[in-house]
Amino acid sequence: MSPFFAAIVLIVLITCGHFLGRRRAIQTANGSRRLLHSLPHYYGLYVTLWTGVPAVILMALWVPLQPYFLDSFLIASLGDKASGLNSDQLGLLLNDIRNVADGNISSRRNDPTIIAAANRLIEWRQLGYAGLLVITLGAAIAGLAIARKRISRTMRARNAVERVFNAVLFIASLIAILTTIGIVLSLLFETIRFFGKVPITEFLFNLSWSPQTAMRADQVASSGTFGAVSLFAGTLLITAIAMIVAVPVGLMSAIYLSEYAPRKIRDILKPALEILAGIPTVVYGFFAALTVAPAIRGWGESIGLDVASESALAAGLVMGIMIIPFVSSLSDDVINAVPQTLRDGSFALGATHSETVRQVIIPAAFPGIVGSVLLAVSRAIGETMIVVMAAGLAANLTINPLEAVTTVTVQIVTLLVGDQEFDSAKTLAAFALGLALFCVTLVLNIIALRTVRKYREKYD
Amino acid sequence: MNMENNRPETVKSVAGGMAIDTAVTGEKNLKMDGTEETTIKMSARNLDVFYGEKQALFGIDLDVPEQSVTALIGPSGCGKSTFLRCLNRMNDTIDGCRVDGDIRIDQSDIYDRALDVVELRARIGMVFQKPNPFPKSIYDNVAYGPKIHGLAQDKDELDEIVRSSLERAGLLKEVVDRLDSPGTGLSGGQQQRLCIARAIAVSPEVILMDEPCSALDPIATAHIEELIDELRENFTIVIVTHNMQQAARVSQQTAFFHLGILVECNATNEIFTSPSDERTQGYITGRYG
Ligand SMILES: Nc1ncnc2c1ncn2[C@@H]1O[C@H](COP(=O)(O)OP(=O)(O)OP(=O)(O)O)[C@@H](O)[C@H]1O
Ligand SMILES: [Mg+2]
User: How confident is the model at residue B25 (pLDDT cuts 50, 70, 90)?
Assistant: First the structure.
């Protein structure tokens, strides 16, 4: 017996519930559907919901709670053997018991107390599943009976069913919001812990970033410095380079696609641009690191410039290329949304196509274009893979695109990869950086969406 | 307005075919000196228009007399807008639209290779059904045309063009103290007059109007009708309307279209009092349309 079996029986019951509810409703109306408040299948759904929802909720609570209770029973039954242990050792012991019960390899499979405990565990588990079956099926049958009894000619089954669906949809939408809130809160708490160790003024104003914390208190340079300025400067530099590439190219291709391109060319170019958007960023990353960066370096050397092998320029250029389809498809939508009557008005005055584009269409679409550029900026700021592979790790405070710089996202990655102590300033710094990044992109997104919406309102 | 540029050809009304013939005899306004002569500003001969495979207009012959108002009426989908858009070649901007036949302005073929469509549209203004001011200031809306055609030597001249165009469109008084505010912020009727001002700012010879009042309330409509009547002194006007009273009030000549065919074209009072075709009769008395 397992939860799986219970689930199957439940599904059978639910199906029966639908059928029974429907039939019952038709019976109460003496076969004349017109007398019923709702269509018969709403009564079916009503019974289904009564059968299924309480039972599923019980099951959903039971399944995760059962191991938890069984563990505490086990500890109680072990008595003295468990009471002397600290929590790590206790966890190890329970793990061994579980492994033996599941038939897995365990280092202590010959210990008689463990074997006895494992046998108890197996027995209890079966009891638990039996209980689960009884309780869920009991709830299902009770729900079915209650709901079926409630059915009458005037019962508003449709309204009840609609209310349930309403609630389900609401909960679904809540999940995304709650997750976001949860993430933000956890960022916030860890960030507060970080600022307990490192003063916030250092984070915001110190120009140097060297997040090495000592293993032992007597080491040299035992405390790192956590000045995020150079990281944000690096992010800004790379984002700026990316936008210098992406905005003009993206905008011009959007104008070409939406205003000039004949149907056939548009039908080829637009999907092609969208394919560009579908390339995984890690591919762009090694393209930047292995092709573009060496090319820039070689080119720099040939004219006597000193170019770092990992340069902001390489990462920025490739990131710009990655963002082109983003800018162009958003701008394309915005330009297409400019009403045809404005174009006609301009043409009818004898304006040429380019005059119309420059003086009527672009100004009309401008807020929307700004919005799409801002969205692209926030995308560029949050982009990680390309900069991890191509921009380097050295925190340089520079505006020279030929030097290596590092970005906020790169530092978050390097702070967290590998084995880390979870409460060192080094690890917590990642949360502070994450929160700062989140705030910046959030503000950008809000401004961008606002401008886009304002623009939409103007023409709807 | 530089009227020297227009060299209207004077022709005998017979040349215009039956359409213009009656238009002249029935309408006092057209005759300055009591003779049987009038000036034809634009003419269409044997005009067929296709949208892809579908033919929208069939062999249209129509003359548009100078300095008068020609109304195009007919049931929805009969090709009035299509005809109007042929006159300033706005159909060029529609994919798959093909125009066969002959359209002339002042005797010269508007589909002639040598003729620049940009220049043609500067000579033939257009006002649309829905007011479509650009999302610019009132001033810039009117100044747009003169700027792109380089009609003003300096800022003062441009100011003067904008001022006089707004004045002639009857809008100046209402907007004189807010020329810098956006044109889209005006009321519907004001927006439509702004569009008329924008059209006359480039000193066109002909103004085409496609149901210019259909989005407006009766008061704004009356305003525009008055304006059309005044504009007739300087411009040749072709107007599409679904409103029979409006056609009767503002026009001197009326053309009735039905299923892509020009059924009847005559002096307006003739059409409304004694139409010669029973389809016309049926339409204006409201039996169908
Ligand atoms: N852009 C277009 N593409 C294809 N067919 C068109 C197009 N514009 C108009 N037509 C067709 O041409 C015919 C004439 O249309 P037109 O717009 O000239 O009618 P109308 O007389 O102006 O009608 P309404 O009074 O409703 O404005 C219609 O059958 C219409 O379906
Ligand atoms: Mg029309």
Answer: very low
Gap from CA of A68 to ligand 1 centroid (Å): 73
Which chain A residues are within 8 Å of B132, Cβ to Cβ? 339, 341-342, 344-345
Q: CA of A444: how far to CAs of A332, A370, B76, in Å?
A: 20, 11, 49
Interchain CB distance below 8 Å, B132 and A345:
yes
Strand-strand pairing, B253-258 and B69-73: parallel
Q: Which residues contact A347 (CB under 8 A, 6 or more apart)?
A: A356, B90, B93, B121
Residue A364 and residue B134: Cβ atoms within 8 Å? yes
How far apart are the C-alpha atoms of A144 and A8, rounded to whole Å? 16
Residues A307-365 pLDDT 10s: 777 888 999 999 999 999 989 988 998 899 899 999 999 999 999 999 999 999 998 88
Q: pLDDT value at position A28?
A: 87
pLDDT digits (tens, 9 = 90+) for A109-145: 677 888 888 888 888 888 888 888 888 889 999 999 9
List the single residue in B with minimal CA-CA distance to A263: B95
β-strand partners of B21: none
Nearest to B158 by CA among B139, B172, B173, B171: B139
**All domains of chain A in start order, with CATH:** 3-155 (no CATH), 225-459 (1.10.3720.10)
Question: Which residues of chain B lie closer than 8 angstroms to A263, CB-CB?
Answer: 95
pTM: 0.72
pLDDT(B37) > 60:
no
User: Does the beta carbon of A345 lie under 8 angstroms from any beta carbon of chain B?
Assistant: yes
Supply the ipTM of this predicted assembly: 0.83
Q: Is the pLDDT of residue A397 over 60?
A: yes
Exposure class string for A276-292: b at 16+ Cβ within 10 A, else e: beeeebeebbebbbeeb
Pairwise CB contact (< 8 Å): B93 & A355: no
Q: Is the dihedral of CA A371, A377, A378, A380 positive or negative?
A: positive
- Which residue spans within A172-289 are E strands per DSSP? 209-210, 225-226
Nearest to A33 by CA among A44, A48, A18, A17: A44
Q: From ligand 2's centre to the CA of A459, what distance in Å? A: 21
Q: Residue written as tokens 């269509």? A: A39
3-state DSSP assignment of residue A419: coil
Does B152 reach chain A within 8 Å, measured CB to CB? no
Question: Do the Cβ atoms of B42 and B103 come closer than 8 Å?
Answer: yes
Spell out which residues of chain B touch residue A364, defining contact as CB-CB under 8 Å: 134-135
Q: CA-to-CA distance for B8 and B235, rounded, in angstroms?
A: 12
Cα–Cα distance for residue pair B271/B264, rounded to 1 Å: 8
Rounded to the nearest integer, the mean pLDDT of chain A is 86
Q: What is the CA radius of gyration of chain B?
A: 19
Q: What pLDDT is stored for residue B268 in this prediction?
A: 93
The residues, any chain, with a CB within 8 Å of residue A321's CB and separated by 6 or more, are: A245, A246, A276, A284
What pLDDT is stored for residue B288 in this prediction?
A: 57
Helices (H), B149-236: 155-168, 172-175, 188-200, 218-231
SS3 B172: helix
Report CB contact under 8 Å: A343, B128. no
Nearest ligand to the CA atom of B242: 1
Domains observed in chain B:
3-284 (3.40.50.300)
